[in-house]
Design brief:
- The structure is a single chain.
- With 438 residues, the protein is an alpha/beta fold.
- The chain contains 12 helices and 18 strands.
- The strands form 3 sheets. An 8-stranded mixed β-sheet has the order 3-6-2-1-9-11-12-10, sandwiched between helices. A 6-stranded antiparallel β-sheet has the order 14-15-13-16-18-17.
- Helix 2 packs antiparallel against helix 3.
Amino acid sequence: MPVAPLVVQKFGGSSLADADRIRRVARRIARERTAGADLVVVVSAMGDTTDELLGLAAAITDTPDERELDMLLATGEHQSATLVSMALHALGVAAISLSGPQAGITTDSRHGKARIASIEPERIRREIAGGKVVIVAGFQGRTGSADGGATDATVSDITTLGRGGSDTTAVALAARLGADRCQIFTDVRGIYTADPRLAPEARQLSIIGYEEMLELAHQGAQVMQTRAVELGWVNDVVIEVLSSFEDAPGTVIKEDPLVEQRNKVRGLAHDRNVAKITLVEVPDRPGVAAHVFEPLAEAGINVDMIVQNVGHGGATDLSFTIPQVELATAKRILDPIARELGFREMTTDSSVAKVSIVGAGIQNAPGYAARMFHALADAGVNIEMISTSEIRITTIIAEDALETAVQALHRAFELERPESAAIEAASASSPTGTAAAR
């Protein structure tokens, strides 16, 4: 008797925003189950539940305890998991909901930004063997011992994985269970060459490589969470991004054997959650940069782009970007350091945005940086900072010029043009394509 394929599916908050949408998701799951697949379904909190819970916490205190905040936020996914399970019961489908800890997910102890340390999925396997669809609350786990192993549940604490953590839960479970497919259902059809809300001519990609997707996610594309893409890449999990609102082909994230034959620029990413800090006339001597950035790192603030001018007269200017939501914390940390080290002043700007072009090999092909800068100049967009990697060129610009910049770059790199049908056909039939995946 053939073994049923194991499929891990994840449904985001917009897919579960109300009772009608939950029933729709349940019907989709039931169809997949009827087709013969074993299913593990990871769910996010309903709609804006997480933001509403954060708002409630903020109404109580400006500084909520991190442990208690994780206990609160985890309830959002618990609600979704139980309601989806109930909806499946109503359709006659055997199902059971599990919290992250019940699913065997163990994390480190960083509340709000925990990382998965291990997964012991015996309970999941047992429920699948019993003929049930397993619904797992995403975004959460429980603390483990110092070596990453599980500890007694009576002395462990609930943790959350940070924004987008349900994607991470799904991909991690797919890797640990050896799933045949990992499907991420969201409110868009897949990955686009740019955000269609800014570039109406943006085109859906049928396939994108892990490295390119990782850069797009890191630079602001919100369809996939960065850590989920990393886990997929490391564990060779083929990920399919699909719409939960329509039956349409999605985008496959996997190793792309034909990457060299494609357009060097695959897509654009943008990010409005950016703030720029400039330290003016910083003493130009060894150890100063470490003295600035170490406290930010200890506070969990991610510093992105860094530009230091050539020193003159024993001083230099140092500019860098951080998430806009971390600006107040960063200023509080840097104020005493500025006085200690003797900066002339510290300036901040939260009215900036980041826009990037991403594509494998663009740094090995001449002219892409020049074309990008020329397109922005022709559109009247001033560049404040520049950063590059092997597959990315990023600029910091004024936030109010973002839409103009995205549209100009999309036209400049002709991203609206479909890629060769021959390339798409060859990619779909390759040994690493979805039909043969895992």
